[in-house]
Task: structure prediction
Amino acid sequence: MGQDIDIDLTREGALAEADLPLAAAKLARMSTSEVTSTLWRCSLKRSAVLFRLLSKERALEVFERFEPAHQADLVRALRDEDVTGLFAGLDPDDRVSLLDEVPAVLAKRLLSDLTPHERALTTLMLGYPARSVGRRMSPEYVRAHPEFTAGRVLETVRHRATEAETIYMIPVTDGQKRLVGVVSLREILAAPEDARVSDLMQTPELATVSDDAEQVARRCSEANLLAMPIVDSEKRLVGILTIDDAHQILRDAEDEDIARAGGAEPLRRPYLSTSAFKIARARVVWLLVLAVSALLTVQVLGIFEATLEQKVVLALFIPLLTGTGGNTGSQAATTITRALAMGEVTSKDVGRVLLREFRVGTTLGLLLGILGFTLASLVYDVPTGLVIGSTLLCVCAMAATVGGAMPLIAKAIRVDPAVFSTPFITTFCDATGLLIYFSLAKVILGI
Result:
C-alpha cells in the first residue's frame, strides 16, 4: 500500500477505478481537518467521488465542517442514499442552514426522510425569520427544575449527554418551561448531591428567538458564555446558542462584510469548486452599479469641458483627487461600520459621528493639501498648486463626513451598511469631488 503516497487527491481529472483503493487508503490516514481541506480544494465532481470513499462517521464529520452553500452543492452531486444518511445525522440548526441553500423540491424530500421528532424540531426552526437567532440556535439541550437536586441533574446529564448540543450550561425552567436561571455543570459537580438547583443557579443572560442572530452572537462572545438560552415572547425556553455557533455567525458576517466592501458578494463555497459563472455572478452586480455611477462622473466632466480646454494640466490631477476622495470615504465608512457592529455607536450618534469625521477629514485634507500644494507649485505654478491643495482639503473633509454618515443612515433604514456604503461613496465622492475641483479652479485661476 506504499504506492498510495504518490496519488494526488486534488489533481484535476477523473479518478480511475484502480486509483480508488489508493485514494481511500490515503484518506483513512488523514485527520478530519486534512480531509476537509483536501475536499475543499477539489472540484465539485472529484470532491463527491472522494467523499463516497469515507466511512459514514468520518463523512458526517467532514460534511459538518463545510459551509451550507458548499453542502448544498455536494448534496446535489451525491446519490440519494448518501444524502439521506448525511442529512439525518446533522443537528437541527445545521439542517436549517442547508435547507436554505437547496431547491424547495429537494428540501421537501429531505424533510420527509426524517423521523417525526427530528422533522418537528427542524420545521419549528424554519418558521423563524431568516436572520433571527431562532434559525441558528439548537433546540436540543439539557434543562433542570429549581427543585431538582444536584444528583438528579447529573443523572439527567448522563442520560441526555449524547443528544444535547452542550451540557456545560444548563438552563433552569419552572413548570411552564419559563426560564428562571442557569447553572453550570462545574457548579453541579462541586455541590453536594442533595443541594437544590435553586440555591446554585444564577440570573441568566438570555435572548429572544426573534432577535438578530449577529447581535446575539456578539453578546454571547463578548460575555464569554459557553451558551446563551433563547426564549420566546413569554420567556419560555426554546433553545440555546452555543459559543461555537456564535463564533461561526460572526465569521460569516465578517466574510460577508469583507466581500461587499470589495465590491462582490461572498461565494460561501470553495473557490476551486465554484464555477466561473457563479464567481462572475457574485461580482457583476457591483460592477454594473459602479459602471452606471461612472456615467455621472462623465456628465460632470462634460459640464467643465471648456474649463479643461483652457487649463489642460487640470486633467492630470483628476485621478489623484477622485481616488483620494473615494479612499477617504471608504476608510471612514469601514471604521463606522465596525463601530456599529461592535455596538460602539448607534444611529442616534449621527451628529457626533459627523462632527468627528469632519474634523478627521479636515486634518487629513490639511496634511495632503500642503503636500499637494508644494509639489504642484514646484512642478507647475503656484495658482495650480493652490487649486490642488485647496481641493484636497475640501474633498477629504467632505468624503470623511459622508463616509461616516452612510453606515448610520443605512442602519437607520434597515439596509446592510456594507452593501449601501461602498457604491454610494464611490459615486458621490467622484462626482462631488470634481464639482469642487473645477469650481475652485474657475475661481482661483479666473477661467
User: Anything to note?
Assistant: The CA atoms of residues 277 and 283 lie 10 Å apart. The domain at 2-131 is CATH 1.25.60.10 (MgtE N-terminal fold). The chain has 20 helices and five strands.
